[in-house]
Fold Gram-positive cocci surface proteins LPxTG domain-containing protein.
Amino acid sequence: MITSAMVVTDQGTSQAAGPGAAWKNYGNSKLELNARKSIDGSKVAVCATDRQINSPRNKWINYQGRRVIGAGQEYRSNGATFEVKDKVKGTTVVFPAAQEYRVAYLAGQLRGAIDKGDPELGATVYAIHSLSGRLTAEQNRSAQIKQRAAQLVQQAAAYAGPYQMAAPEIKVNPGSTQGTVYLPVPQSAAGRPMSGLKESVTLTGPAHFSSKGQPKTLSTSSVSTAKELPIEVTGPGKVSAQVQVLGLPPVSYEIWEHTRWQDLLIAGPNSQISTSAATSVEPRQFFAVKTQTQSQMRPLEQGAELADTILVKAEEKWGKTTGQETWQTVMIDLSLYGPFSSARGPGQIPTEAQPIKTWQLPATPKNAEEAENGVTISNETDPYKIDQPGFYTFVAAAHRDLQPEDTHLKADYVPNFFEEEETQVLPFSPGVKTQAKVVTDKQGKILTDQVELSGFPDDHPDFVGTGKWKGDEPVVRNDLYCLPQPIKDQDTQGKEPLARVELPAKNGTYTVDKDKDGKPLSLERLKCKDTYVFVTSYEGDSRTQAFRSSETETDEQYALPQAPPPPSSEQTVLSATGASPSAPLSAALIALGCGGLLVSYRARRK
């Protein structure tokens, strides 16, 4: 807070020629306790203890000199105009500097003393001259006047200047539009309160008084205790208050000098004092927010839709609108990013990441409970539909530059990117095609399978996991079973496979002719009197769907050709078609040589 104070009079120490006046006398001239008032009433004077005679009454007198005595100065007489004793002119200290303010105070009482009558006027003149010590014998004749004069001297000691006043105090709590100006008490040099004086208070800056009409200046009267004036602040900035007290007793007096007539002590003008203070005000309520969020994914026939529920909370206290009892509206900038093939740990938003959609969601407390506990908002009325597999993550941020004009956030709030509660995944749907056949090589007949895997993320199975997102499942199983006809779905449950086959869960084409231990899928080794059945299965993981083929899919079944029945001993009578007796055998041989089978399927999802 900046403060300043200033005492003001319209006087300064000066030397000037040519003042003049026509005087009218008041008081008891015999006791030499009289005073004079100018005909126009503007001046009140008393003899400056000069031993020269008074000027003629009601006659205009031009004086040779005029001096202003103030600011604790001594009054030293002019040897050319001042008789220090009868018929002797000279220089002397009439009033020492220590008495200057009291002389000025008592001179200021002359006008009122004239109105009160000769006794009060005589006591006032006596009190003034007593401060110089230059009293005449005639002035000392009245004990009553001397007693009253002593009281006036004590009064001057208590209430004379220089006058002082502390700076006003401006109090406005941060975030409030209501404040108070505390007015100081004007005081005398002795610390006595100067009450009953005209006092004005002027505000500058973004504030006004709370009274009717919202004035910038108020007039009041000074009192002996601090006074409070309510104010209203209209905006941020610097508010200053200047307090001015008028009508204080004089703090200076004049000496009018004449070579023939008495030098006169003229009462100075009433003085005034002003003081001011300034302070910075901030009526806007700044506050910080944070969010607690939970995303949701609802499946659709094709893809899914994403929504986010957000609890917006103030870190300390939710700010109110400036000058109102309503709460500020916080605009939440909700952004959706994706799809990403894999998840990542929470962190800053990558510079290259661009949202696929944004929502502007307002959060305004309806009552004090919501202001304290938070406001829940959501984009569930406008969800985002997705059909591409991958990870999607929301970010619910509050940016200062996106807020309404009357919303004042302390800082931006941007949560971590890829928070678990804000992330959903639409799983990838891997697929498989197979082509099984029997190949004869030096090891005999080998059952082989050409497997084509597709639909995995490109980096599958390299993702090791983070947070709740577990790492990739690395294996696709392509186990071989022997099942009797008729084959039903799930027939392999509880059965051990003839061979366990594992493939990497990665896009590509793989030729399978060995089990997981590297042993060939030899029909000689893997005996099956029934039907060979390949069952392809995948357990899935955080970002891919599981799948399993059905045992009933004939494209995954293979049966050995059956041998023909032995020939009958009876002679067969050949038909006229000319069929050869060797035809059945030839047919059987042909059948034995058929070992090929083409299998192609799209695996069913679990």
User: Anything to note?
Assistant: The helical segments are 100-108, 110-116, 118-130, 143-159, 368-373, 583-592. The chain has six helices and 39 strands. Residues 309 and 378 are 4 Å apart (CA to CA). Residues 1-17, 570-606 have pLDDT under 50 and may be disordered.
